[in-house]
Amino acid sequence: MKLQKSKYKILFVMNSPHAFNSNGIPNDNWLEFPMQLAKAGYSVSVFQPYFSDAVKYKNKITDINIGFTHNFSGNDYNGRFLKTNICEGLDIIFLKNDFLFTSLSDYLHCYYSNNYEIALRLSVLSHAVFLYMKLADDVYDFLNCVGWEAGLVPALHKKVYCNEPIYQKIHTIFSVYSFMKQGNFDPAIYPVTGLSWASFNLYEMEFWGKFSFMKGGVVFSDALVYMGSFEIEKFFSPRYAFGLEGIIENKKNSFSGIPLGANLENWEPSNDKIIKENYSLKDIKAKKNNKDFFLNKYKINHGSNKLLIGVIGSLEYYNQDKHLNNVIDVFSELEVTFVVAGKINTQIIKGFSNYKTKFSNNIVCIQEYDEIFIHLLMASADIIVIPSTSQKYPLSHLYALKYGVLPIVSDVFGTMEGIESFNVKNTQGNGLIFSNNTATSLLAKVISAINILNNDSTKEVLIRNAMKSHFTWIAPGFMFIKILNSLKKSKI
User: Fold this and answer.
1) Predicted model pTM
2) Sheet holding 432-434, edge to edge
3) On the chain, which terminus has fewer CB atoms closer than 10 Å, C or N?
4) What pLDDT digit, counting tens, does each position of 26-50 carry?
5) How many structural domains comprise the chain?
6) Cα distance between residue 24 and residue 86, in whole Å
7) What's the angle, vertex CA 386, arms to CA 381 and CA 392, rounded to 5?
8) How do strand 43-49 and strand 90-96 relate by DSSP bridges?
């Protein structure tokens, strides 16, 4: 079954630094949805910052000789646009600005350390979307703004650019994986957005005394999309909406959930070119060889007979839990090896006073990780713990299943797409889901997973269930196009 071709032009706006790989272009998983739409015949482009890292990209990047000067909060900023092709029907349009966007590492540092700089950079990029369309005479039917980092685009469309005829037929979609991270900033830097102070109010940009990119995207978009198959009514409660529940409920008539799919061509252990040894459901024994290779490569001297548990996705929220230290203390006493990935997670774990004396015995921190690391981890791990959706690899739980790994995900902060909680009695299911968003509930599921995998017969069934899971982008594609069709029929 194929998606019906359309004349729609769709621009995906990606501002999140987590979206980009070491080449400075979106990771495969961030590109999968636009790539599938492009392959189905849609005219699709991605708009993003240009980083110096992109020179390493295999495809040629061309300067299209279009530039601009624009005033932001009293200062002029210059920019020009570059372009490359990812696959047939899918281009990436880069905004190049040597002051705001240099290397990816600089952008990441700014993202975590300087509120003014990140608000300014995201604002410049958001305005540049509209400047590009005008200067290049390349206007899109739909702007799909991905994540809170792109939340300013729908606000600018409605409040700044709405009176210009070329923008009046555009519809904006705001797509999110979670409402937890919101991009809330001090009102002292509000002018960098280019919005008038009239929009700094309870019903528009103001959010608990700050201004919010996430709220701007929710309020001003023509359609709100949650990337996952949650019942959208769950987001009408504080537990899942993090203070935005009333605003989201007001959006219920234009709020949809789209199940995640996955193009697993590059995430298949039987032909994975990155891992040490290929394996399949018929020959799972090679997984042990991959574990040996992984432990050796990352100098982890814990022995391959122990269960290997990877932790990806941020522990940041749980760091507020007074029980986290005790939970990590219990982790350190288990006869398993934990590999904790990510800069924030490393800071949290190493920040505990007893890290060197106790935690380091079986908890290994990998601060910087890339796609190679994720492939090797998936081929080696027995369990993957995802306490919150990994922004860099939001489909990690689906990859885990294909590699015969037991995923543990949160029903609040994680993406549960494709995960059916394993039932020991009837041996149905392929993962574990924990509730209550507490460190203690996470601990309980980790211990349950260890008990399940310590039973050889149960472990074999679980691995089989996981590896037989199947996902495609066909159904999500149909649902997304249905949203576009509905918007086209409505009045702007």
Assistant:
1) 0.77
2) 363-366, 336-341, 307-311, 383-386, 406-410, 432-434
3) N
4) 887 788 889 888 888 889 999 999 9
5) 2
6) 13
7) 95
8) parallel
